[in-house]
Design a protein that fits this description.
2 copies of one chain form a homodimer.
Chain A (H helix, E strand, L loop, with lengths): L21 H15 L6 H7 L14 H12 L14 H17 L4 H7 L5 H16 L4 H27 L1 H16 L6 H6 L8 H18 L6
The structure holds a DNA duplex (19 and 19 nucleotides).
GO molecular function, one term (chains A, B): transcription cis-regulatory region binding
Keywords (chains A, B): DNA-binding, Transcription, Transcription regulation
Protein name (chains A, B): TetR family transcriptional regulator
DNA sequence: ACCTGAACACCGTTCAAGT
DNA sequence: ACCTGAACACCGTTCAAGT
């Protein structure tokens, strides 16, 4: 245990401060995301975590949206893509993949909201896209329709997760939801005949029931709707 | 022009400070929205506009999301609902209403983003809902399917406006978009055969072309997809 | 080239105190 | 009841200056 000389010139502090870089920055962001939620994944909080000033992060990230997209890309690794190659009905397998995607977003409130604005484009996202396209192809959806349809499927899934997770996040959003339900229930038939006729059904079902129907409907629509109208 | 006595006790300043209230607050918010954009519709900026402190606004608004929802509700008055009662193909008229809705959101960047989270529930929103439901009914979409379908249509329209208007808003988001296009173009066929096979088509078309196809596809899907799977 | 201290210009929300 | 000053606890981003 001979004491080494004071380490060649390195002025080390407590835990060896890691060199900055895209990878360590995103890793730190994911850490904060897991422990404190997306609302704490800010440039300033991240800089503190990395023991530097916020300005340093701008060498690697253009803005906060890009940071959030990078975090999302990381989390997309948790989407279960096994149904893509599993046996069984292709529609059911497609729904399973999309429900898994929604689940990942739903587990991390805030992430869905950012996904609508800054789309990721990393390996995990590409794999998800590829998987959905493979299933649509297996189901015989023409390529041109699948190309646009995959976007609709992801958009609906993401938007639903955004709404849903906001509602789970804060009480005000949940109140808002029931206030809308009440408003719809109370809409007078004289001025809003269709809303009155449909009534409760406008807000019925669980999120998953609605999503599963929506996925089936969008897939059926994509399957039967040509790109160029006659 | 006999000079009146100094106004009965009222300690008036420059322009008679308007009494606070939900209506004047929303009106001021709309004014700021028009002149400075949604990113300036903040509690603090609004308080300044109304010549008071931000705390005063919390008597009338629970939070910023509610404020943004109120502003959106105001702007929804600009959606063109005339196609609902016009002659012609119901699908085309439905698409026109939805395109008008997207247009309103698109003209006011940021509004669409907030619409995904805090849904409005005022008269303008109800009228939009009623109009879409009337058209779906005219087209013979079963009520149960229309009830859930209207949500999908509005969600897709809103999400598209959110993406699109973010892209128009700042250059970074636009770069992001072309970066995604490049990533997709360069995806190797060995690992991503479907992406490679479809290629350019994944990002092809104008926003309006894609939206019109999407609306048709969703409507067709809603028309033919029963709520309870066999 | 890479990194950063410090500053600029803001935020939402709460709460004790006033009228 | 309604309103508010002041405070608490933060933000994103830029830029001149350092290494």
């Amino acid at each position: 245990m001979a004491p080494h000389p004071p380490a060649p010139k390195s002025r080390r502090e407590r835990p060896a401060k890691p060199a900055l870089g895209h990878e360590v920055i995103v890793a730190a962001a994911v850490r904060i995301m897991r422990s404190e939620g997306l609302q704490r994944v800010t440039m300033r909080r991240l800089a503190t975590e990395l023991d530097t000033g916020p300005a340093s992060l701008y060498v690697y990230l253009a803005n906060t949206a890009e940071l959030h997209a990078a975090v999302l890309e990381e989390f997309l690794g948790a989407v279960d893509l096994r149904p893509v190659t599993a046996p069984g009905d292709w529609r059911d397998r497609l729904a399973s993949v999309l429900i898994s995607y929604v689940g990942v977003l739903f587990d991390h409130p805030g992430l869905a909201r950012s996904a609508l604005v800054a789309r990721p484009r990393g390996a995990h996202y590409l794999a998800l896209l590829e998987g959905i396209l493979a299933l649509l192809d297996e189901g015989g959806v023409p390529a041109a329709q699948a190309a646009w349809g995959v976007d609709v499927l992801l958009q609906v899934a993401t938007a639903t997760a955004a709404e849903q997770s906001t509602r789970g996040e804060d009480a005000a959003a949940a109140d808002d939801h029931s206030a809308l339900a009440r408003t719809l229930r109370e809409a007078p038939a004289a001025t809003h005949p269709r809303i009155a006729a449909i009534g409760e059904d406008l807000m019925s079902g669980t999120a998953e029931q609605r999503l599963r129907w929506t996925f089936r409907a969008v897939v059926n629509g994509a399957l039967t709707t040509p790109r160029d109208p006659a």
